[in-house]
Amino acid sequence: QPAFNVGGNPVGIFVLLSMLSTSFVAHYNAPKFYSELKDKSVKKFTTLTGLSFGISATIFSIIMIAGFTTFGGASQGLILNNYASADKLSTIARIATLLTIIFGYPFTFVPARDSLIELMGWKATQKDKDVLSLGMIATITGIACVLRNLGLVASLSGALLGSLVIYIFPASAFVNGVKNGMIPNKDGALDSEVGACKAITKVGYALALVGVTVTFVKTFAPHLLK
C-alpha cells in the first residue's frame, strides 16, 4: 500500500507549483501560432488558447493524481521510473513519452535558438544556424546524460524560467509599453491593468525566489525542512 503521510514539510508545495509552471510555458510560440491561424482574430485565438490549456490541465491532473495515488510518498520525479522495466503498459508510456519529446522538441528548441541569435545580434546564415543547433543539442544532450533527477530539473526550470515567462516578462512588457507610450492609455483607462500587472510581477519574483530556494533545500539539505 502506498504511504501518503511521510512527514513531509508543507513548504514542498512550492516545488509542486514550480513543476506545474513548466506545463504552461508556451508563450514564445504564441505569435507564430496566431500568425498561422486561419481567419485569425483575438477572440478566436483566445478561445482556442483557453480550450488547449484546459485540455492540457485535465490530462496533466489525471496523470499526476493517478501516479501519486499509486505510489504515494515514494513517487519519483519521473513517475515512470516507479514502474518495473518489464511492465508492458509502462513501456508503451515510455515510448509515447519519447515520441512526444522528439516531435515536440522543435517547438521549444527553435524559438530558443532564434532568440539567442537575436540577443547576440548575429546575422546568421542557415549554415550558421545549423552549426549552432548541433552545438546546442550536443550540449543539452550531454547535460541530460549526467542529470538523473528529472524532478529537480522540472522544479528549477518552472520556478525560475516559468516565473519569468509566465508572470514577470509579459506583465513588465505591458507596464513599460504603457509607460513609454507604445500602448495608448487615454484618460488613464489602463491604470487598473497597469496596477494589476505590477502586482503580478511582484508575485512572479516571490514565486521564483521561494521556488528556487525550497527546491535546492529539499534536494541538497532536506533535513532543514524536517
Question: Gist?
Answer:
The protein is mostly helical and 226 residues long.
What does this structure look like?
- The chain is mainly alpha-helical and 226 residues long.
- It has helices at residues 13-21, 30-35, 42-71, 88-120, 126-146, 150-179, 191-220.
What attributes characterize this protein structure?
single chain, 226 residues, mainly alpha, 70% helix
Ranges where pLDDT stays below 50 over 5 or more residues in a row are none
Total beta strands: 0
| Average pLDDT over all residues | 84
Q: Sum up the overall morphology in one term.
A: globular
Distance separating the two termini: 24 Å
Q: Tell me about the biggest sheet?
A: none
Structural class: mainly alpha
Q: What is the overall number of helices?
A: 7
Strand composition percent: under 5%
Radius of gyration: 21 Å
H/E topology pattern: HHHHHHH
Residues in helices, as a percent range: over 70%
Topology:
Elements: H1 13-21, H2 30-35, H3 42-71, H4 88-120, H5 126-146, H6 150-179, H7 191-220
Helix pairs in contact: 1-6, 1-7, 6-7
